[in-house]
Specification:
The chain is an alpha+beta fold. It is about 20% helix and about 35% strand. It has a 10-stranded antiparallel beta sheet, with helices on one face. Strands 14-13-12-18-19-20-21-17 form an 8-stranded antiparallel beta sheet.
Length: about 350
Amino acid sequence: MTQKQTSILGFLTLFAVLAALWLLFGESHDRSPQQQTHLLPKLSAQINDVAKIEISDALNSTHLVRENGSWSIAEKSGHEANSTQLRAILRGLADAQIALVKTDNPDLYERIGLGESALHLVLKDKTDKVIVALDIGRRSFENRSFMTFVRPLDGARSYLVSGLPEIRAEASNWLDPTLFSIERRRIARIDIQHNNGETLSIRRSDPRSLFAIQDLAAGTKEKDSLPTDMLANAFTEILSEDVRPADELDETELLYTAHLHSFDGFVLTLSLYDTGDETGDAWAVGEATAHIPDEEDLPDAQTALDMSPETEATRFNRQHMGWAYRLPASKAIALGKTLEDLVENAPQDPDDGA
C-alpha cells in the first residue's frame, strides 16, 4: 500500500469515527439558553389532565392513580402517594429543557441508557389516553446541574435534557417517608411496654428539664451518657421505608408498645411488630389521640403550634391508621429501649453497712 493510499485510509477511518461520535453525542454542543427548548412543550397545558402514571424498568413496575384530587399507589394496596414528590416530577417534566439533540440510531441507545436498561414513563388521562410516553436513560451531573438522556416514544430521536428530577420505578420510592415528627421540646413523657411485661417510663416537668427514669430501683442510676435524652430524640422524627395493611400483621409478633405524651395534650401510640426476617426491621402501627391537659401540668414555656393537638391527631389518623410502616432496625432498637439499656449499678457508699 502506498503512502497516499495509507493517508486516504486514515482520513476515511477518522471520518467514520467522527460520524459515530456525532450520532452518539449529537450535532450541537451549544448549550446557550437561546437554543434550548422544552422537551414536552404541550405538557404544561395538560398537566391537570394527568390521572395515571406508569413507571417501569427491568425489575420494578409502579402505577400511580389520581382520584378525587389525591394520588395512590396501586402496588401498595392503594396507600396515599407523596403528593409533593409527584407535583415536583410533573412540573419537572413540563419544564425540562433540551440541552443537546442526540442520536436517532437504535443501535446506539444502549450506550446512553435508552435500550433495555431504560426506565419507561407513561402519563395518561382518566380515559387512558396517553399524554406522554418517554424512555429515560443515563443521568449525570454536569455544570452544576443534572443532565438526563431521554427519548419520547413518538419518535426515534433522543435528547440530553436539563431540569428533569430523578424518577424511580420502585413503588416504595413514591411513599412519603415521614411517619411522624415532633419538636423535642413538646415531649413530656414516654412510656414503653415490652412483650415480656417490662415497662419503662421517662418524664420531665418542663421543656427545659432533663428526662428522668420513673421508679428507678435502689442501687441503680442512669448511665452518664444521658440515654433518656437519646431515647426522647429517637421519637422526634420517625421515617419509614415501606408500608402494608396493618391487618396483615400477626399479633403474636408484637415486640413493644410505646406511648408518647406531649405537654399540650397530643398522645401517640406506636406498636412495633417483628418483620419475621433477619433484617431486624420492625413494622410500626400508630394511633393518635388528644386531650386537654390539666392546668397544673402545663409548663411555663409552651410551644407555638401550627394546629391544635386535636387537629394533629385527626390528621395523623386519617393518613396512617390501618397501615403498618416498616422501620429500619436502627430506629426499632432506638425506640424500644429497655431499663437495662438506660441504667447501671450506682457506686456503693463506703459507709454503707458499717
